Amino acid sequence: MLALPSLGRLRSGERGGRDLLRNQPNLLGALHFMSLNMRIATTVINARVVRRAIWTSAPAGFRHCHSRSSVQPAAAYHQQSTMAPKIIYFPVRGRAEVMKLAIVASGDDFELEQVNFQDMKAHPELYPFGQCPRLVDGDNDMVQSNAIIRYLGRKYGLYGKSEKETIAVDEILEGVESLRCKYLTLIYQDQLATKDAYWTSHGDPASVDSRNGGAHLLYFSRLLARNKEAGGGGGKAFVGSGLTLADLAVYDIVDLHVRIFGDQMQAAYPDLLSFHSAISELPGIKDYLASPRRLAAVNGNNLG
Question: What's the rounded Cα separation, in Å, for the pair 104 and 142?
């Protein structure tokens, strides 16, 4: 171990100093190393002080949005792909429509590949639940429509601007799913034969307090009004002031009901129809809705 001389010995004179350095050949290196470490330590301490000062002086909203507990940016969830996302589905709008709306509303494009039922069932390695749609986006290959929608929401920044907004988006997505399940029963099992009873249970504002399985159009009307009263969206957004997955999902479910219950919707829910019109005019969505890329068939049995 290197024995460092006392300060007095270092001051004993030029010749003594040279003799000392000759006797301690590693002294210069050791002193240089110590000096370098001291400078590094000082730099690290100063950087921490400056960073802490900036953080504590920043607005509370900035600190919340950039804290580790807040919602992470889209880049944390996916890697950018140079190819357009590919939606693999049957030749109907169905459960793929919200995905398409999310993509085009974000200024991106999608590729559509049709699959038939037999081919889908023949490839469980690609369709582990035996269902479509399926999305391929770069290295990401996934199924389950609601998982795909949330992935696209993270990718395109449509999942809320804070954790609280993300929770609200998820709540509305689940509410739409509850109503969609009732709608699909009306279309595929009842084949519209029970549409009057359906409207009574899930559309008529007077029935909202009856048992409805959490599926009623009035719930969405109330949520839209609540966000407007909170200063968000002016009746054109369900969560905050920006476009989210919640808006696209509600747009789609309202669109499906307008096709069957146009007069009733106009009388009972002018607010939802106004919201529907506003979403229809958004850049990307407006062009998509007017293009042949929007499939004419809504459901697989040509009803609805």
Answer: 19
Structure-token pair, residue 98? 């919200």
Cβ atoms 225, 163 nearer than 8 A: no
pLDDT tens per residue across span 158-212: 999 999 999 999 999 999 999 999 999 999 999 999 999 999 999 999 999 999 9
| Other beta carbons within 10 Å of 242 | 14
Place of tokens 């009307």: 221
CB 218 within 8 A of CB 205: yes
Token look-up 């369709």 returns 127
Task: Annotate 98-129 with b (16+ C-beta within 10 A) or e (fewer).
Answer: bbbbbbbbbeeebeeeebeeeebeeeeeebee
Q: Which residue has the higher pLDDT, 148 or 61?
A: 148
Helix ranges, 1-87 (H): 7-10, 14-23, 27-57, 60-65
Q: Show Cβ contacts of residue 230 under 8 Å, excluding neighbours closer than 6 positions.
A: none
Rounding to the nearest 10 degrees, give the CA dihedral for residues 127, 128, 132, 136. Answer: -60
